[in-house]
Each structure stands twice: as structure tokens, then as C-alpha cells.
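User: For my dataset I need records formatted as: sequence, then C-alpha cells, nothing else. Please produce one.
Assistant:
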Amino acid sequence: MMRFSCLLLALLAAGCAGAPPGRSVSAPARPSRGYTETGLASWYGKAYNKRQTASGEAYDMYAMTAAHKTLPLGTVVRVKNLENGRKVNVRINDRGPYVIGRIIDLSRTAARKLGMRDHGTAQVLIEVLR
């Protein structure tokens, strides 16, 4: 048991038990304007349209909204597609994505405006605006 405890402490001290290098585990509890995160975005559409979101509102695939795992509901973020430079502003109104390795799920319209709807995913930069 002592050996296991020492190993666990060593791993924690070395940072091996956390997220992969360059990837944060979660956003700050109250992210300030300018907080950024980079990773893979995806989108969700027709199968979820009109279903209740985590904020309590019905999901509208034509609205400029998104799902994020940790940012507070109501947060407005700018999403920049790093593959083509296009940008959109969306409001976080749901939780997700639930696919490992993805950081944000965009509405169908937001994905279309970013030029990623047909491909399904894109590398993005997220910046908290308010």
C-alpha cells in the first residue's frame, strides 16, 4: 500500500495524472474575457433539434449557439476555424460534446458559417467575449 501511495504522489507531482500537455482539463470557474482554448470542434443538428438543452431552452439548429463542457451557460464566445480563418460568435446554452477529444459542439448554422458543416469537424480557437 505504501508503494502505491508513493507512486501516486510521484505521478501527481510530475503532472502525469492530468490532461495531455498543452490541453487544460477545464475552463476557469468564472472565465474572464480573453480566456482561450484550442481544440477540435464538431456540430450537432437535426437529430437534436427542439430537444431541451442544459439551459432549459429548446435547441434550435438555426440559432448561433453551442455546447461546452465547462463554460458557464450564457457565456458568449468567438469561435475561429483555424483551417480557414472564419469566425462566429455563439452563446453557450448546452453541455457537451460527449466525444473524447472535442471541445465544443456548434449549432448547424454556426458550423455552416465556419465552413465546417460538410467536413463535420475543424480545429478551432475559442475566446470568451462575455
